[in-house]
Amino acid sequence: MPWQRFELIMKKIVIVFLILLNFKNLYSQGKIEVVVDSQLYEIQSQRLKNKKIADSKPDTLVVQGYRLQVFFSNDRKKALKIKDKLIKEFPEYANEVYLLYQSPNYKVRIGNFVKETDAKPLERRLLKHFDNVFIVRDKIVYIKNKISKEPED
Hints:
The chain has a four-stranded antiparallel beta sheet, sandwiched between helices. It contains four helices and four strands; from the N terminus they run ααβαββαβ. The radius of gyration is 32 Å and the shape is rod-shaped. It has a domain at 59-143: 2-Layer Sandwich (Alpha-Beta Plaits). The model has no long low-confidence stretch (mean pLDDT 83). It is α+β, with helices and mostly antiparallel strands. The chain starts with a helix and ends in a 10-residue tail after the last strand.
């Protein structure tokens, strides 16, 4: 009889111990590591920028269009100088001068043109000031009912 009672007590102790051990595993704070591709942050950032642009200016859209590339190099200081020169020489495009960084190079682009032919007059003007000017496809900020800035040639 005393052994049976001892076995019963031991069984209860083991059961309580297993239940406590199980609760410890349920409520323990483990470490979880989430691996995310860096491009996901870039995509998220770009979408947020596009949304902010669209929300702040309801009559603007980000669409596929054309810009003129004036500079391409890994020299950041020279890229900034070119950007400043464009803003001074072409003040009507001051809000449309872009400095892009695509590792390891900097690009300076100007304009927001829906059609490639719309960029041609500015290309001719830029070639008088810069050696390597060419039209590139890019995402642009399209403003509905925008008045043309280009003087008639």
